[in-house]
């Protein structure tokens, strides 16, 4: 029989190593992963009527009507710049003459609603794609977008020039998002449970119908909301 002699120094060193390893593992398990940056947005149809103001989420069944306008509600976990634009699917130009808008969301979790006044939608096309792009404030593309959007605000702009600018805006959005497949970015909108909600003390619960856009890694995030007969098919492609 071979008898192994205990080495106190060796045992002490081994015990210390085990304790350090256990402490490290416990520390790793207790660490909280950093929260992912994101934005949320919901386009709504606001209707002004004799019975008050009603607001409902924009979706595939939305269409123009008396007293109607469009509004965007948004919030973001990190500072960002938000671009919204409406495109007509038939002409591929700006929908109903709506000019694109930019909002600087420099305070995290600050809720915004714009444009003011909202885009009038009493008449015009129902075949609409609404684009929302969340962009990091330090992006080199922000200055160019602001310049282009600013140039598109003239109410008396030449129609051919405005069409050219709309094409350029689409190109910039495509370049920002790094792909040419809009179907990947279509929002899935929750069914509307009520036919409009009268604006009250807390307003319309837009967050229940909002789309979430991932902003992790400092990359722009795009989401598209659509109305009209082709909207359901586009949503199905995304799924």
Explain what the structure shows.
- Strands 1, 2, 3, 6, 8 and 9 form a six-stranded antiparallel beta sheet that branches. A four-stranded antiparallel beta sheet has the order 5-4-7-10.
- The chain is an alpha+beta fold and 239 residues long.
- Mean pLDDT is 81; it is low at 18-24, 26-33, 190-201 and 235-239.
- 25% of the residues lie in helices and 29% in strands.
- It starts with 7 loop residues before the first helix and ends with a helix.
- The protein contains four helices and ten strands.
- The protein has one domain (38-238).
- A hairpin with a 2-residue loop joins strand 1 and strand 2 (52-57).
Structural class: alpha+beta
Poorly predicted ranges (pLDDT <50, ≥5 residues)? 18-24, 26-33, 190-201, 235-239
Please state the CA-atom Rg, rounded to the nearest Å. Answer: 26 Å
Total number of helices: 4
What is the β-strand count? Answer: 10
Oligomer: single chain
Give the fraction of residues assigned to helices.
Answer: 25-40%
* Mean pLDDT rating: 81
| Residue fraction in strands | 25-35%
* Series of secondary-structure elements, N-terminal to C-terminal: HEEEEEEEHHEEEH
Largest sheet: 6 strands, antiparallel
